[in-house]
Design a protein that fits this description.
The chain has about 250 residues and is mainly alpha-helical. The protein contains 13 helices and no strands. Helix 7 runs parallel beside helix 13.
Length: about 250
């Protein structure tokens, strides 16, 4: 139980800004860490639903509501996944070798393409979320668990681009069989919740997440030789945007 509790604390300390008690960051304590990673999505989803209800009580306009939906994941996570999106954008835009792209991922300086990507990403998110109704917002609250379940599964089954780094460390420490079981279970539960909320939109969101996952695998292997922590963040951000876009299209079609 102590190892499981430590794994829980490490997951939330690493991937969120939620205050947690101190934990020993040892290999043994990271064995089950990825099993708890998707639970951060529950916190984000709950916060999104609470904001939806608060915005309705405040009679906030669609733009203000959308701004809250877009900012809540950043506030809960501290932008750790967004950082991966921007680093990956710089690396992909460089058109360099795999080795050079991996070096760019480690560069803490933001390039021009990272800034452009950030602007385009937030504009797209704001535009899509401003078009969604209350039911679609409740549905997408489950998407934060689904995206993290896919991301956790990738750590267990995808090759790592480097022998060192965050993903390589956690993949080495992870109990991969247990992680895969947990991720599949959470994927079924989150996708089931979304389909139960609305079968058409839920299925569209789940399909969008699956397609993004396939793209993530092919892109990471071709461009980088495997996944890294930054690429994991890139996937998660794109996956959540694709799911929101899929729900919007399903609503209109």
């Amino acid at each position: 139980m102590r190892k499981i509790w430590n794994s829980f604390k490490i997951a939330f300390a690493m991937y969120s800004k939620i205050p947690m008690p101190g934990a020993d960051w040892e290999k043994e304590n990271m064995r089950y860490m990825m099993c708890f990673f998707p639970l951060i999505g529950i916190v984000i989803g709950a916060a999104v639903i609470l904001w939806s209800r608060a915005a309705q009580w405040l009679e906030a306009g669609s733009l203000l509501r959308a701004a809250g939906y877009v900012l809540i994941p950043v506030l809960v996570t501290g932008g750790i996944h967004l950082d991966g999106l921007l680093d990956t954008a710089d690396a992909l835009s460089s058109c360099q070798t795999k080795e050079r792209k991996l070096e760019i991922l480690k560069d803490s300086n933001a390039g021009a393409f990272a800034v452009i990507t950030a602007c385009c990403y937030f504009m797209a998110c704001l535009g899509i979320w401003s078009e969604l109704g209350e039911e679609q917002v409740r549905l997408l609250a489950g998407g934060y668990v689904l995206s993290r379940s896919f991301s956790g599964l990738a750590v267990a089954v995808f090759p790592s681009a480097k022998k060192s780094g965050t993903v390589a460390m956690f993949a080495d420490a992870a109990q991969k069989r247990l992680v895969k079981i947990c991720m599949y279970a959470l994927m079924i539960l989150s996708a089931g919740y979304m389909c139960f909320t609305d079968i058409k939109s839920g299925a569209a969101a789940a399909a969008g997440a699956c397609l993004t996952f396939v793209y993530y695998y092919r892109m990471s292997k071709k461009q980088f030789g495997g996944i890294t922590g930054d690429l994991a963040g890139f996937f998660l951000q794109i996956c959540e945007l694709v799911m929101a876009g899929a729900v919007y299209l399903a609503r209109k079609l």
